Amino acid sequence: MRRVTSITDVRAAVRGWREAGQRVVFVPTMGNLHAGHMSLLEAARAHGERFVASIFVNPMQFGPNEDFAHYPRTPERDARMLADAGCDLMFMPDVAEMYPYGSEGATRVEVPGLSDILCGEFRPGHFQGVTTVVCKLLHIVEPDAAVFGEKDFQQLTLIRRMVSELCMPVAIIAAPTVRDADGLAMSSRNQYLTEAERARAPALYRALAAAAGRLAAGERDFPAIEREGLRALEAEGFRPDYFAVRRAVDLGPPEAGSAHLVVLSAAHLGKARLIDNVQVRL
Ligand code: PAF
């Protein structure tokens, strides 16, 4: 696996492969890789012959009181994991390479509306940072396809919308959430949990799965299902930001006849803010 840090080098490598007729699949990450990221690379395999992963902790998607400075950075371990998984190119730019004029005043890409609901309501500016960096990375790498995890369901929805509206010639592939045996979705931020909090953390998935079960059974009192989800999380010591039933296609409010729903939640447990979701197809 080659390791590159400049836009010029990543472009030259990818263009060479594409000229040779090879399809290139891209997995953007913020590093500190775990089995969830490895499953994105696994999903990539079905869509091409060459694989590029980026490692970039994007300052633009962190709020002023968030964990940008402390976000776990493990580049050497990440490089070994990517090489073992058959990745061809690891792109690890620094902040100046990605934001030559600084990240604060940089040109931005925003999907209005969708960026401001759910997590966007509690993390102002976060999704603008995500869509901006993903747009830049897709322009830099120019892949045929890019893989994103369903765990970040709102992020995935926003990226699909951005790619469609900006006519970007890339297929967006969704990879299912990878969970520990007790149901907790894998996340770099699970490291912030104490042992006691880690033992309680699967309650988030249980609450989402219970709500999905009620929806699958035909219940349509969405506010009652949301209230019960919030109550269950508070009973386990979480401080929930939201627990919401939405249409999976656009995260709009569900209707009685909606055939594809998603239940999403974000909740604080100790120092960690956990997010997760469960889809329901009727
Ligand atoms: O999901 C992530 O790790 C990040 O939000 C992403 C897509 C790599 C953009 O920084």
Describe the protein's architecture and organization.
By secondary structure, this protein is an alpha/beta fold. It folds into two domains: 2-175, HUPs (Rossmann fold); 188-281, Pantoate-beta-alanine ligase, C-terminal domain (Pantoate--beta-alanine Ligase, Chain: A,domain 2). The chain has helices at 7-19, 35-44, 75-84, 95-98, 119-122, 126-141, 153-165, 195-200, 203-216, 222-235; strands spanning 2-4, 24-29, 50-55, 89-91, 145-149, 171-175, 239-247, 260-269, 272-281. Helix 6 packs across helix 7 (153-165) and helix 9 (203-216) runs antiparallel to helix 10 (222-235). The longest helix has 16 residues, at 126-141. The protein is globular, with a radius of gyration of 19 Å. The N and C termini lie far apart (43 Å). The model has no long low-confidence stretch (mean pLDDT 98). The chain binds pantoate (PAF). Pantoate binds at residues 28-30, 58, 61, 130, 133-134, 152, 155.
CATH overall fold name of the largest domain: Rossmann fold
Count of discrete alpha- or pi-helical segments spanning 4 or more residues: 10
Radius of gyration: 19 Å
Total separate domains: 2
**Beta-strand level of the residues, as a percent range?**
15-25%
Q: What is the highest CATH level, the class of the largest domain?
A: Alpha Beta
CATH homology superfamily of the largest domain: HUPs
Shape: globular
Major β-sheet strand ordering: 1-4-3-2-5-6
Q: Which structural class best describes the helix and strand composition?
A: alpha/beta
Give the second-level CATH assignment, the architecture of the largest domain: 3-Layer(aba) Sandwich
Uncertain stretches of 5 or more adjacent residues: none
Mean pLDDT over all positions: 98
The termini sit apart by 43 Å
Helix content: 25-40%
